[in-house]
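User: I'm writing a short methods note and want a consistent example. For RNA polymerase sigma70 factor, I'll paste the sequence; you return only the structure tokens, no commentary, since I'll be parsing the reply automatically.
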Amino acid sequence: MTEEVTLLKQLQSSTSKDDAFKELLNLYKERLYWHIRNIVKSHDDTDDVLQNTFIKVYKNIDKFKGDSKIYSWMYRIATNESLTFLNQKAKRLQITSEEVQELAINNLTSDVYFEGDAIQLKLQKAIATLPEKQQLVFNMKYFQDLKYSEMSDILETSEGALKASYHLAVKKIEAFLTSN
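Assistant:
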């Protein structure tokens, strides 16, 4: 029995759920943090979204059927929570999702948790110009080095479509970086 199956059984058992959940947190907290951070940009917002993600995971672990890997399922929740957060923020501020992204990029320079230099900031600005799906695919491939098969599970899209999205994203980013 694989570790993941064992962990899943513990998560779905009322007697071992809390301990298993702590183990799940330790295993995936950092990876999910950076996945969310690449989407929402701000450290504080990332912490909020990460907390919401783990609350959803905890509440819904009994509904997880094991059709995909646990981390793929959690990444899907984290992605959806991140996009929902950005859309709610846009609605609350009465601006577009693109303007929320622009605001987040502009705030990166004052974010004490952003350790990037001018080149990394320029890259983040280039990524922010991409459509939502291309941003997700680029971030998952470039920053997290996920395989297309893993991204396919998470985003529920074919590998071919993901490869095309990544290729287009790279071309657009190159064009942005050379013209700015």
